[in-house]
Specification:
about 30% helix; binds iron/sulfur cluster; 3-methyladenine DNA Glycosylase II, Chain A, domain 3; alpha+beta; TATA-Binding Protein; six-stranded antiparallel sheet
């Protein structure tokens, strides 16, 4: 077993209450940096930074940002969901570790995002419904995973179907959804 235990803290995202999600910050008992390329080869749509030892991907609608000694879990409704997600990740890490000799590690980076790419796919009205002063500020915080895309309520209303579809696809390809 590589990952033995973890300690989780739950916080609310600093965004609109309409997001209805929490953020889990998880401190790991063990350094899992060496297994990240093996996890990267196992999941579709992952975004990997080999130098920084950061792996991002989504599983069953939950978004994971994995560092060598801590994990961020996003798009979860409450502490119970966060624990379920972390227990799944712990099992996935340990199963991958046990099978590592049979797995080809991958250093593929996946899709890199920047705030401008995201900004171009937002409504661009600077309406402040998300709690941010501008759409660009929202884009920057979305990139840093400090806010959920669902906090931009206008994007999910009628009027922006093309932008919404493109942004969701982009975030998914980058392992953010
Ligand atoms: S809610 Fe959406 S459209 Fe309004 S400011 Fe925020 S990102 Fe821009």
């Amino acid at each position: 077993m590589l990952l033995n235990d973890y300690h989780m803290e739950i916080s609310l995202p600093a965004c609109s209450p309409s997001a209805q999600t929490v953020i889990a910050t998880v401190k790991l008992s063990d350094d899992i940096g060496a297994i990240l390329p093996y996890l990267n080869s196992q999941v579709k749509g992952a975004n990997f930074d080999p130098e920084g030892s950061i792996l991002r991907f989504s599983h069953e609608g939950r978004a994971f940002t994995i560092h060598r000694d801590h994990v961020g879990i996003f798009k979860i409704a409450n502490a119970g969901e966060a624990r379920d997600a972390m227990d799944w990740l712990k099992a996935f890490v340990n199963e991958t570790y046990e099978r590592r000799t049979a797995i080809e590690p991958s250093y593929r980076r996946g899709v890199e995002l920047n705030p401008l790419q995201i900004y171009k796919l937002l409504p661009g009205t600077n309406c402040k419904e998300c709690g941010e002063a501008t759409c660009f500020a929202f884009a920057a915080r979305l990139l840093k995973e400090e806010i959920d895309v669902s906090a931009c309520a206008p994007l999910f209303e009628d009027g922006y179907p093309e932008k919404r579809e493109k942004l969701v696809t982009l975030l998914r390809e980058a392992g953010r959804l």
